[in-house]
Design brief:
With about 170 residues, this protein is of the alpha+beta class. It is built from 4 helices and 8 strands; from the N terminus they run E-E-E-H-E-E-H-E-E-E-H-H.
């Protein structure tokens, strides 16, 4: 995938050598397929309970975005230092091929990024989601646990006072 010199848009560039009847090379024939529809399809993918998630792909060799949810970032260097260090560790023979990390975006929002390395293409696929959305279920479970704990404490106090009242009723009887 490259940025087309003619249109300045991202294309999948494909070339094939052409030979004559004596197997002598004559030249190249090629074409470029625009990636707009692929990017639109990826942008329209929905992940349950992750409405604000975005994807990106980084070429590990040069730390440039191959795909990005924001098309202006395609072909630009990945400015996130963690992405650059992951690319360095993978291209340098590192063993870290999948994982996750957190970072604060330019908008001040904290994000969770999950990544996996695709060695056949030399790309790093990243899925980013705001931390509040990624851990929404955990936060909800904390609320449920707190409510359950308060109910248990209230029931224990009720039984304790009920036991004292029962003891006083037995003394009176």
């Amino acid at each position: 995938m490259i940025i087309s010199p003619a249109t300045s848009k991202q294309i999948v560039s494909m070339y094939k050598a052409v030979f004559d009847e004596n197997d002598q090379p004559l030249g190249f024939v090629g074409l470029g397929i625009f990636t707009n529809q692929l990017i639109n399809n990826l942008n329209e993918l929905s992940i349950k309970d992750m409405d604000n998630s975005t994807y990106s792909m980084v070429n590990v060799k040069d730390d440039k975005y191959v795909f990005h949810a924001y098309s202006a970032m395609i072909g630009e260097y990945a400015s996130n230092k963690k992405i650059a260090s992951i690319c360095d560790s993978i291209s340098g023979g590192g063993q870290e091929y999948e994982g996750s990390f957190t970072y604060t975006g330019d908008d001040g929002i904290e994000y969770v990024s999950t990544y996996t390395y695709m060695p056949e293409y030399g790309w790093l696929l990243l899925l980013d989601d705001p931390k509040t959305e990624a851990f929404a279920l955990t936060s909800l479970m904390r609320v449920y646990t707190a409510v359950f704990g308060i109910v248990v404490i209230a029931l224990m106090l009720l039984f304790f006072f009920n036991k004292r009242q029962e003891q006083m009723n037995q003394k009176l009887a």
